[in-house]
Amino acid sequence: MADRSALILEEIDFLLAERRELAAQGPHFRIIHNTRGQWAGDPHRAGCLPGEDLLGIVLIYRGREYQLPLSPAEASLFDFLGRFRIGQTASQIERGIRGDAFYMAQYARAWKSNRRTAEFHRTTIKAYVKRIRLAMAQAFADAGLLLDPVRVMVSQPTVRNEKAYSVRARIQWLHVPGFVGPSRM
Amino acid sequence: MARIFLIDGDSVHATDLTAVLQRHSHRVVAMSPEEARHDLATILDEAEIVVVNVTTDSQRDWDLLRDVCHLAAMFNFGPQILAVSRTYRGPTARLRAEKLGGRLIYG
Q1: What is the DSSP secondary structure assignment for residue B26, as one 8-state letter?
Q2: What residue numbers bound the domain in which B41 lies?
């Protein structure tokens, strides 16, 4: 029993550490940007340049990656919210995304390749949030991660009649030189 | 140190494991699968770790593990689930537990 119980105790220590980390930081997501042949600089920098392409968002759990099935608009919203520690209301999101060269350049490229242009209006953000939660639920299920997406893609009421949205997670950006070609999302 | 619920149909194994865990300062509540099924939601609300003995490898064991994992996912950063088996069942059983959201240890 001694050797076997040592294994169980070790595993319990690991699970407790994992639980503490999840409670403190939330799950770990990686947002991958394709620099489309440009010099990427520090691959983990948070700032993003116009002309980069949002390749995808993956959940990292126990050493494996699980892609979130998101449209370009939903992925952009996730990317945008990931940059803020505090919640953003729909009007703040709309203003922020429309005023950001990275997101606007992405949409322009999507337009040229005859893809559906992602639109950011206050009225559609609520729907995007729901879809992000569905995508998270799928990734969590695939990963066997016991988390409720509502606790990660958080919406909190404000004193005004609107909600503030935030992603309660550890988010890392990865810039890869990638290929020069049409957007993959 | 941690609040642990042990769901174990083997009373001898449950007693041994409870003693080991308590020696390491864990607070342990042991119960049979039948007892656990009655009050699963309360158990999951209070526990940090739930240990499920799946040694018999029966469908009932795995159904219980599945129910525990599914219900745990509904709590705000709910308990972590650890399945234990005294019999080695190979990597397939470990993968099966991981897909449910738990971990399996042969111990």
Answers
A1: -
A2: 3-106
Interface test with B, best of A1, A7, A12 (most B CBs within 10 A): A12
Q: Are B58 and B65 in contact (CB under 8 A)?
A: no
Q: Test A7 with B75 for CB contact under 8 angstroms.
A: no
Q: Where residue B30 sits, what CATH number does that domain have? A: 3.40.50.2300
**DSSP classification of residue A151:** G
Using the Cβ of A13 and the Cβ atoms of chain B, whether some distance falls under 8 Å is answered with no
* Residue with tokens 């642990």, as numbered in its chain: B4
CA-nearest of A180, A178, A169 to A84 is A169
Number of domains in chain A: 1
ipTM of the complex, rounded to two decimals: 0.90
Asked whether residue A18 is domain-assigned, the answer is: no
Could you tell me how many residues make up chain B? 107
Residue A181 covered by a domain: no
What are the pLDDT tens digits along chain A (185 aa)?
567 789 999 999 999 999 999 888 999 999 998 876 666 566 666 567 777 788 899 999 988 999 999 988 889 899 999 998 899 999 999 888 888 888 877 666 655 555 544 466 778 889 999 999 999 999 999 998 988 899 999 999 888 888 999 999 999 998 887 655 544 44
CA distance A4 to A95: 58
| Angle between the N-to-C axes of helices A101-112 and A90-98, in degrees from 0 to 180, rounded to the nearest 10 | 70
Strand partners, A183: none
Please give the sequence-ordered ranges of beta strands (E in DSSP) within chain A, or none if there are none: 28-34, 53-61, 64-67, 88-89, 153-157, 163-167, 170-176
Euclidean distance between CA atoms A115 and A131, whole angstroms: 19
pTM of the model: 0.80
